[in-house]
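User: Please check token order:
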Amino acid sequence: MSTDTYSAASVRQARERLLEAGVGAHGLTPRTLNVPPVIERSWRRSFTTGGGYDPTATPAYHPFSEPAGRFQDTAEIVLARWAESLADMRVALLVSDRSGRILARKVGDPSHARRLDKVSAAEGFEFSESALGTNGLGTAIEERSAVFVRGAEHVNDRLQTLACAGAPIHDPLSRRVIGSLALASPVGASHPAMLAIAKQAARDLQDALLNTAPLELQALLARFADGTARHRVLAIGRGGVLASTGALPMLSAERHVTLWDELQAHHWQGDVASVLLADRPSTARRIVNRAGESIYLVELAESEPAAAPEPTRLSRLAAHLDVLGRSSGCIAIHGPRDSGKTLLAQLWLRERDRHDPVVIGAPAFREPGAVATAVQALSTGTSVVVCSVESLTDVDFPVLQQLAGAADPVRSARVVFCVADDLTGVVVDFLGRQGPRLDLPALRDDPDRVIGLAVRLAQEYSVTLSPAVLQALSRWDWRGGASELRVLIAAMVVQRPGGTVLDVDLLPAEMRTRARQLRGIAASEYRAIDAALREADGNRSRAAEILGIGRTTLYRKLRAYGFDGQNTLIS
């Protein structure tokens, strides 16, 4: 829709109609509101943000605490090239990261630069949709497609003198949205061609990012693209993994994290080493780029048989429960308190029965009707999970007998008793006679299960956890067990700036910087670096002096031990 189709007043009137009717009023469509569908969707999101609708909000400033990275450096180069080509137009070029923070800006017209400064459209300021409502940078990230936001289509009053054409920027390897690129001009100077230019400039930036990868990795990518990578090859980097078709089934989320840790911890004498991938001997090659970051190419020998999907920790536990369930209508899952027994039982039965089981806390059976509810569910083929069985006493013994008697293996209805390790007396004796049991270790002692549970919990919110998040979760102590894990993921979902990928910046700082389990010299070195950083109040140059090593060496060790907390897989 062009700017001639409707006036600023009509756009404001449409926005007010939507607010008055309520954002849930789906009877108001883009046609009746007389705005493009992308604008209407963005308005609805903007009006339902957690902080409420504020048309006068000012962008938050987030200073750059780290040296410019590959993305920011490459953006500066691409913007400079495009700014030269657009010198005759009154436009500014801006690039933001995934959170909407502006990383780079190029503007030739001094008066236009002052106009942008007044609305804080400059490096370091956040232009996410959740913070400022509908705008070219933030809405392009949310929509994952190009958008043109003109004048009064902006939710924020301060931006309504501008027209902004934005396009998302995709990581050339993972294809995830990592930011956006936008052209901003005064409303009166805007032109429909701005949208096409924004799209092309975003593509140029993606191509430039790919060209910054090591030459060896570029060659590998070319082989993937033209289909000549026939054998099983993995390229594992901080941000994720690239795999040929035959190798992908071998790398579960759990194995990705542990293999990265293994490759990082390996004492490389050269650039080639032997590793095990899904218990198969493989050859790993290390490629280090100019910034000192490592990428690993892992290749299976051609003589190895075709790869079979590697079972995850959860799938192995579920298979074990399947076996146990064939011989009895009752199964007991034992483990420390809050080790995820109930959650495991729910996931297993949901997958097996294609519907949710009934979950009842054991103390509830002392209330009228609770036993009848459980027995009724079992009679209809619905399994029952009884948690906190350790709270029962010998007085409650008849309840257990009644439940065990109602289990119906013919209908596949099972009773799963979730029991803490400290259970004693007649109840535990009864459970021992009734059926088989599965013993679970504490969650902190089972990192693969942590990853599996986290992935399943994230799926309940229709979000994905980044490799960095999975690695941080696998390293945590989880003294609060499965409840702590569930609460954490729910909090990350609430905090996410947009999109469906939860990254490591949403984790608590102490969780982001937790290093992998270290031993011997590595553990001593980790403690020395940690102490030096504390003594230097976080000043890395001063910490390097305290340790008696060069800054470059310290930065490499910080990455190796996971001190950096970047939004990529923790080194």
Q: What stands out?
A: The chain has a mean pLDDT of 78. The longest strand covers residues 177-186. The chain has 22 helices and 17 strands. The chain has five domains: 1-211, 215-298, 314-439, 442-516, 521-559.
